[in-house]
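Our preliminary data section would be incomplete without showing what the modeling component actually yields. Below, a chain of 630 amino acids is followed by its predicted structure, encoded as tokens that our downstream tools consume directly.
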Amino acid sequence: MTGLSIATTNVPGVLPQKLEQIAAAGFTGVEIYEPDLTGYAGSAEEIGQLARSLGLQIHVLQPFHDFEGLSGASRKSAFARLHQKLEVLEGFGAQTLMIGTSTHPEASLDISQITDDFSELAECVAKVGRRAALIALPWARHITSEVEALKIVEAVGSSAFGLALNSFFSLAGGGQAARLRNVPGDRIFHVQLSDAPALEFDITRPKSHFSLLPGQGGLNLESFVQIVARAGYAGTWSISRVGATAEGSRTDHARDAFRALVSLLDEVSTRELALRRPLEGLPPRVTPTGLEFLEFAAEGSDRDRLTQLLESLCFRKERQHRSKSVELWRQGAINIVVNSETKGLAAEARAEHGPCVCDMGLRVQDADQTVARATALGTPAFSQPVGAGELEIPAIKGVGGSVVHFIDEKSDLHRVWDIEFDPVPKERAAQPAGLRRVDHVAQTMRYQEMQSWLTYYLSTFRMEKAPVVDVADPAGIILSQALASPEGEVRLNLNGAGERRTFAGAFLAQGFGAGVQHLAFLSDDIFETSELLSRSGFERLAMPANYYQDLAVRFDLAEETVSRLKRGQILYDRDGRGEYFQIYSVPIWGGFFFEIVARTGGYQGYGARNAPIRLAAQMRYLEERQVVHA
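Predicted structure:
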């Protein structure tokens, strides 16, 4: 099995707590970040013993730099520090000291002197049965790339002196993994992995401002891993130090890092035989093929407000659970479950968050294998008591306490509506409004949690992410990250809110916590749907007249088209040949809302340029209601 490691700087707490969290997350190894050691009162021997008792191997001590190219007292001090670090390594029972290339302002640029210094270092390391891994820091005074570092390693020519690689250093400045093809695998002693945003920035600046967990950024880490493995590297893969923006909920960071690392290595191992699988028997990532249901927890007046809104959207109450206060509302392929039970998942969610979406059902090929992958990556399985005549539907408890159930056609799971529910006699057949299926689900969370949600989805499901979009709210900025399954059957929007006064921030602050803030339904004809909703009494969000005046000029729309959009309070966007139409309900429960959309011409976005207009209208609506009820 492949060795999986992480730097201690990524995890909160004192060093023993860090080691416990790292082991609990599933890692088999660890890089000790020197400040974590110097800030702890215990000895290196005690730390080594603790690590082994937790099933961890200490692979690396780092950082050690500003060693080479010095003279006089500075050189003497550098060698004294080296010998002290080797004693620490021995106490740990570890093998490798990571050497960062020098940033010392007095360091010589003479390659001959640098080579001689590293040759002497290699001799010192070899004498005590240890080894040193040279890593080229892009902001160093001299050796700034792995190509230059390899030349030094080859010039030194010692089996105790090799390379350490870091994917961020290799790729973030626009570098290509292909340049590593000529690096011999036996000269690579350690590999660190981290991602970065798909942005242009100066790689010579310290990386902590930019680096992310694998999968959270835009670097081609799969190519990096494949080339290094094909070169013959068979050592440990480690999560290096990542920046503050990637940390999310620090108490969960070790688990997120484990998911990200395993998912990356497992994906590459499916096509690169030289790379061993990180976890034997791990099922592949799952492709969600649709949203089977969304379940609301609501009772009393909150339930009444929801069902009135569903009726105005032309949903019909089609089924009632045989033994519980649970209803199925349906239109097209959209299944909305309204749960008013006083016990169980919905009741607990309602007690903690108020009325909310408490559960989501995804259609997958194999429900049991989906849960098996998720739990292997540290996601807890979810279960609750099942009554007579009820199905035990596989489920997991995701980030923020959300629950996801999985429905497949290999068993009776897809017949849950027939097995557990009875049809409701219809007094009259309401005409549908043309809502065919769920277009997307928008989940709101704090900025600090957003990357954790992203890693959870990308490591469990086969989904692709779009670039992060900054959405301007009247009171601040919201970050929006879209995810979609390969064919677009399941689309998710992750919205990170930081400012409490924003619409999304208010949703969090009012007790809802991280979760679904809105559902979007897909229509084939937005104007026909708009007309049918008008007849059913649907209360839609009003848009300002200025928006439509700007729309006519921005897209050169015909006057008749603009008039139809304005009458229906419909928002519009265009991208190439594709068009996008949006209608919003007024918010309920202080922040939840529905959206109706239509896509033509292959439009794949979400109307980002309309988001500030919608957010301002929602805030205006809520403020007006507060004045009325004051």
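The longest strand covers residues 435-446. Residues 245-249 have pLDDT under 50 and may be disordered. Preliminary results of this kind motivate Aim 1 of the renewal.
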